[in-house]
């Protein structure tokens, strides 16, 4: 190992998979070896079995679909508000000065603390679940997009002006394309946070979803089901992350060459 | 080819003082007229305000006093009539070489076919054939500046503003780029304002060299370059070139010494 020396693609995959193996092995030793009572932690085998019965007998696939729908829906609403507003704030400083102080305050409001209020306002239906995700991600997203757009290289803006671009053309043809790869990266990051908020929303006042299933399993002390539910979230997160990265590489070949 | 007269009248620039200090005068009142088809080099030590003057002509900076006029019409904002090439690499990284060259054409709303035709012409003239579809980051510094030059020229500006465009290039590449620029200018005879701190470059390219004083800048000497065009690199070894160089070195050394003394 040399500092900062790159690792070959094959070795990177092997090493990454290696830690999963070590993690599962340690879990196996702790449970099969009797170090942790089964009441607190199910073994890997028990967890898989619990997962199988969840999927085949208890319609867990439906829960997964509902949760994905909520995450994607809430995330898309947040992005539809945050990306345009963030771009305008980054490009035009008076707009930034208008919104920034409030957003800096709002981003610290914990989304989970809104749940009781949201239940009061929107009931326990889908609107409430989506609202939790939107509140949890929209403020962060606006601030991050504004930061990215505001960091557009001023010399590129000047070059565009000498080539005849006016204000809106600079926004459309310089600020947006310059910021796009970083914005996509920001969206990838915030989508991960949206997953945290959806589960919190589903732990309270929900009748479906992965979070609701985990809550039900707790009543039955079924740690296998709970761990399987949590692991499913991790797997979905990993897959969307890889998809996002692949799409970004496709969309922005100039940024990753 | 269109060419217009550039007139700079009493242009002054001072920057507000830092933390309540006195304002810094960067540019003393400067007058200058550049006729159609002239190639004027502005030569000066670092920090003498020569780039500030060029940025004011481009409309990227506002003078504290005075006015810039192009054929009698005052200029206040940047526009496609004044094409600019910067010292830093300012190609749009998300556009290919061709996309960069087409940028201004698309801004003017030229039809696709015409954009492609103009771009192809300047790709050929700047020696970029075969690189049309490269991303800027795949290009060497010299190739990036060729593209930047093509991008400015494709817009068919009245006047070309060059702010040390070859300053970041290695010596050999710089000389090749000077010859390329000269070749283009000799063919088109566009009005050019060229900022540099390289004496050889100024003499080799320009038909008039303005020497600027140390900060606060002013034009302290005007040296015509009576060497005939077309010029090529062999000109750099002629006695006439040497005599001009000796004269300009004398002017510049004094200013560099003043600038260093002021900084100390």
UniProtKB/TrEMBL annotation, chain A:
It is found in: Cell membrane. InterPro entries: MetI-like (IPR000515), MetI-like_sf (IPR035906). Keywords: Cell membrane, Membrane, Transmembrane, Transmembrane helix, Transport. Residues 64-244 form the ABC transmembrane type-1 domain. The keyword Oxidoreductase does not apply. The keyword Nucleus does not apply. It comes from the Bacteria. The chain crosses the membrane at residues 12-35, 75-93, 105-124, 130-151, 190-214, 226-244. Pfam families: BPD_transp_1. Coiled coil: none annotated. It is a multi-pass membrane protein. Gene3D superfamilies: MetI-like. Belongs to the binding-protein-dependent transport system permease family. This is ABC transporter permease. It comes from Belnapia arida.
Automatic annotation (TrEMBL), chain B:
Residues 6-239 form the ABC transporter domain. SUPFAM superfamilies: P-loop containing nucleoside triphosphate hydrolases. It holds the Pfam family ABC_tran. SMART domains: AAA (SM00382). One of its GO terms (molecular function) is ATP binding. InterPro entries: AAA+_ATPase, ABC_transporter-like_ATP-bd, ABC_transporter_ATP-bind, P-loop_NTPase. Keywords: ATP-binding, Nucleotide-binding, Transport. PROSITE patterns: ABC_TRANSPORTER_2. Belongs to the ABC transporter superfamily. This is ABC transporter ATP-binding protein. It comes from Belnapia arida.
